[in-house]
C-alpha cells in the first residue's frame, strides 16, 4: 500500500504511534511501504523519451517555439501600440496628454507585478496552461479597453492587460530552456528577446496609420485583442507542455489510473508548498538579491535604464520628427525602422559570439562561464551612447536630412539588444541556482523604469531641446559603460564572495537551495 504519511517538511509530522492519522472510523495509518521507495518513482525512460522536450524533433521544437514567440510578440505589441492613440484618448475623455499616457505606463506596471505570480505558477503547473489562460484573459481586457466608455475603465483594463501580458515574458524563457540545451539556448533566447523589442517598435508604426485612418484610435486596442484571440487559438491547438516535472506528473497520474497502483508517483508530488515557502522563494529572495548582491543591483540598474530608453523613444521620436521637422505624425513613426534593424543587428552580434561561448562551455566541462557572456555586452555598451549622441545632435536640425537621425537607430537598437540580452544571460549563468529570482528582481525594477520614462520624455525634449536632452541620456549611457568591463575583470571574484552565486558548482551546488532558504529568511 502507498505510504500516506506527509513529507517530513510538512507542517504535521509523523508520530511514533501514528494516532494523528485516522483514515476511517476503524482504520488508522497503515504500515509504510517496504523495500526501496524509488521503484515507484516515474522518471525519464531514456534520452529519447518524448517527455523530455530537449529530445523533440527540430520541427516540433520550432512549432512550439513559433507559438510561444507569437505570444511574446502580442504581449510586447500591446504595450506600445497605445502610444499612437494618446491624442485621440486625450480628446475623447477630456484629459491632458500626460494623463492619457498613463494607458502606456500602467500596462508596463502590469509587467512589473505579473511575473511575481506567473513565475511560481509555471513551476507548479507547467508552462502551457498559465500561458494559455493568461492569453485568454489578456484578450478579454484588450476588448474591454477598446470598448471602454470612461477613462478609468480604460486605465484599469490596460493595467490588467499588462499583468496578464507579462505571462509569456516571464515564462517563455523557461520554456525555451526546457527545449534547448546549452549549445542552442543562446540562439533561441536571442530570437525570443528580439521579439520582446521588435513589438514595441513595430506597433507604433502600425498604430499610427490605424489612428490616422477612418478606423480611429480604439482600433489599436481592437486589433491587439484580435491578435490575442489568434494567439489563444494557437495555444489551444499547437502549444505543447515543455516542463519536464509537469509532464512526468501527468504520466504518473495516468499510470495510477490505469493500474490502480497508487504508490506510483513523481518525486515532485512529495513536495509540500505553503505560503511561507512562496514568500521566501518568490518575494523575499528577489529583493535580497537585488539589494545585497552588487552584480544583480548594477546589472539591474543598467538594464532598467536601457528599458526606460526603449519606451522613452515612443514619445521622443514624435517630438523630433513631427514637432521639429514637421513630418506628418503617421510618417514620423517610420524612423522606428532604424531601431528595428538595429535590434536585428544586435541579435546577429549575440549569435555571432555563441560559437566562442560554446567552446568555453565545453572547456569548462559544460558548466556556465558567466563572464564570457559579457563580450557582446561590451560591444553594445560602446555602440549605445554613440547612437544616442548621434540622434541628439542631428535630430532637430532641418538642414540635416531625416535619414541621418534615423540611421542612429542602427547603433541604438543594436546596443539595446546586446546589453539587455547579455545582461540577462549573465545573471542566469552567474546565479544558476536562483536564476529565476535574479530575473524576477530585474523584471520588477526595470518595468517601473519603462513605465516612468515616457511620462517626462516630451517635456524633457521640449524644454532642454533635442540636442541636450539626447546628450543627457548619452552621458548616462557613458556612466554605465564600464559595468560589463568591470564585471568581466572582477565578476568571478565577486561571485566567490557570494553564497547565491557559487563559482564551485560541484561542491556548493548541492546545498544551494538550503543557502537560498537560509538567506531569504
Quick one: CATH superfamily of the largest domain?
MFS general substrate transporter like domains
Principal-axes geometry comes out as globular
Main CATH class of the largest domain: Mainly Alpha
Q: How would a crystallographer describe the biggest sheet?
A: 2 strands, antiparallel
| Assembly form of the protein | single chain
Count of helical stretches: 19
Q: Estimate the strand proportion.
A: under 5%
Transmembrane segments: 94-117, 129-148, 154-176, 188-210, 222-239, 295-314, 334-353, 374-393, 399-421, 428-449, 469-490
Protein name: MFS multidrug transporter-like protein
Membrane topology: Multi-pass membrane protein
Main location: membrane
Could you please describe the fold and organization of this structure?
Pfam families: MFS_1 (PF07690). It is a multi-pass membrane protein. The protein is mainly alpha-helical. It folds into 2 domains: 215 residues, MFS general substrate transporter like domains (Growth Hormone, Chain: A, Up-down Bundle), CATH 1.20.1250.20; 214 residues, MFS general substrate transporter like domains (Growth Hormone, Chain: A, Up-down Bundle), CATH 1.20.1250.20. Helix content is 71%, strand content 1%. The chain contains 19 helices and 2 strands. It has a two-stranded antiparallel sheet with strand order 1-2. Helix 4 packs across helix 7 and helix 7 runs antiparallel to helix 8.
Amino acid at each position: 500500500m502507498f505510504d500516506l504519511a506527509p513529507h517530513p517538511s510538512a507542517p504535521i509530522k509523523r508520530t511514533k504511534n501514528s494516532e494523528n492519522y485516522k483514515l476511517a472510523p476503524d482504520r488508522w495509518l497503515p504500515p509504510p511501504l517496504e523495500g526501496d521507495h524509488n521503484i515507484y518513482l516515474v522518471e525519464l525512460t531514456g534520452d529519447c523519451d518524448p517527455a523530455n522536450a530537449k529530445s523533440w524533433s527540430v520541427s516540433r521544437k520550432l512549432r512550439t517555439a513559433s507559438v510561444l514567440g507569437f505570444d511574446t510578440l502580442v504581449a510586447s505589441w500591446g504595450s506600445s501600440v497605445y502610444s499612437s492613440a494618446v491624442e485621440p484618448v486625450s480628446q475623447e475623455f477630456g484629459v491632458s496628454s500626460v494623463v492619457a499616457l498613463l494607458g502606456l505606463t500602467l500596462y508596463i506596471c502590469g509587467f512589473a507585478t505579473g511575473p511575481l505570480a506567473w513565475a511560481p505558477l509555471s513551476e507548479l503547473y507547467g508552462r502551457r496552461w498559465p500561458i494559455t489562460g493568461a492569453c485568454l484573459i489578456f484578450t478579454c481586457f484588450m476588448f474591454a479597453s477598446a470598448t471602454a466608455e470612461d477613462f478609468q475603465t480604460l486605465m484599469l483594463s490596460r493595467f490588467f492587460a499588462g499583468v496578464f501580458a507579462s505571462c509569456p515574458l516571464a515564462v517563455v524563457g523557461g520554456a525555451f530552456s526546457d527545449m534547448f540545451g546549452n549549445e542552442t539556448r543562446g540562439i533561441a533566447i536571442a530570437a525570443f528577446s528580439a521579439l520582446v523589442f521588435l513589438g514595441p517598435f513595430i506597433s507604433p508604426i502600425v498604430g499610427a496609420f490605424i489612428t490616422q485612418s477612418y478606423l480611429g484610435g480604439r482600433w489599436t486596442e481592437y486589433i491587439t485583442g484580435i491578435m490575442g484571440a489568434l494567439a489563444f487559438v494557437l495555444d489551444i491547438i499547437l502549444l505543447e507542455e515543455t516542463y519536464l516535472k509537469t509532464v512526468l506528473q501527468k504520466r504518473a497520474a495516468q499510470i495510477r489510473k490505469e493500474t490502480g497502483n497508487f504508490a506510483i508517483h513523481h518525486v515532485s508530488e512529495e513536495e509540500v508548498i505553503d505560503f511561507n515557502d512562496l514568500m521566501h522563494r518568490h518575494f523575499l529572495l528577489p529583493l535580497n538579491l537585488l539589494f545585497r548582491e552588487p552584480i544583480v543591483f548594477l546589472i539591474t540598474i543598467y538594464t532598467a535604464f536601457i528599458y526606460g530608453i526603449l519606451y522613452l523613444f515612443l514619445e521622443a521620436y514624435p517630438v523630433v520628427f513631427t514637432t521639429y521637422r514637421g513630418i506628418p505624425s503617421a510618417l514620423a513613426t517610420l524612423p522606428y525602422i532604424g531601431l528595428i534593424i538595429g535590434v536585428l543587428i544586435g541579435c546577429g552580434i549575440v549569435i555571432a559570439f555563441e560559437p566562442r561561448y560554446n567552446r568555453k562551455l565545453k572547456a569548462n566541462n559544460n558548466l556556465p562561464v558567466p563572464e564570457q557572456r559579457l563580450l557582446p555586452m561590451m560591444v553594445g555598451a560602446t555602440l549605445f551612447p554613440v547612437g544616442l549622441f548621434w540622434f541628439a545632435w542631428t535630430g532637430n536640425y532641418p538642414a540635416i536630412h531625416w535619414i541621418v537621425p534615423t540611421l542612429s537607430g542602427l547603433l541604438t537598437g543594436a546596443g539595446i539588444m546586446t546589453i539587455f540580452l547579455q545582461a540577462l544571460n549573465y545573471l542566469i549563468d552567474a546565479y544558476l541556482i536562483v536564476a529565476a529570482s535574479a530575473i524576477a528582481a530585474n523584471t520588477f525594477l526595470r518595468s517601473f523604469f519603462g513605465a516612468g520614462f515616457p511620462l517626462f520624455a516630451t517635456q524633457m525634449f521640449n524644454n532642454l531641446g533635442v540636442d541636450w536632452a539626447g546628450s543627457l541620456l548619452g552621458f548616462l549611457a557613458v556612466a554605465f559603460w564600464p559595468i560589463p568591463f568591470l564585471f568581466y575583470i572582477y565578476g568571478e571574484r565577486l561571485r566567490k564572495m557570494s553564497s547565491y552565486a557559487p563559482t564551485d558548482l560541484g561542491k556548493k551546488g548541492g546545498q544551494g537551495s538550503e543557502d537560498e532558504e537560509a538567506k531569504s529568511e
